[in-house]
Design brief:
The protein has 186 residues and is α+β, with helices and mostly antiparallel strands. The protein has five helices and eight strands.
Length: 186
Amino acid sequence: MTEDDVLIYPPVNGWTVVMWSGYFTELAAVEYISRQLGIVTSTVRIHDGDYWSHALLRDGVVLDRFATMPDYFTDDPDEIARLRAKYAGQPAVVAEAIGRPVEQVAPYLVQVNLEDGEDEDGYYVDEPELGKAFPDDEFELDSPWVFVDFWKRLGPRYPEDPSAYLVRIRPASGWSNKLPTGDAEL
């Protein structure tokens, strides 16, 4: 197995998990798959173990985008406001598309700021603990792996055993320069 391999896992709850290469921006491929198969897709990406982002598509159309730390790469206040709004997530849209109650979706779509800072009076404050979305979750909201709990509520299951894939696809040499990049902002 190589780090470029794409792994496809057996369906669970009507969802098939595809693990893309670690440095692959998957949104363009997910748009294509969703459009060609006429399906709802949920795609998640973890960046450097710091934050997670999610996109939900139906028939190749992005219905919702969310990121826990959309301002990860900027200190510009205007850009921060723009990105936080763009990637805020819409729990009602996700819930309707997946057929789950919004109460099962909303607690996960929480943007976090892991930076400590000062309050309005200049006193040092720690970022408050966010805890878990639900008591039976495995991960806390400030962990990028909380998407595993989020997916459990939606239906997909992150593979417990990554080696238990159904199909392995090994892309040809030079594959990364031949794929559409789509919106690689996050």
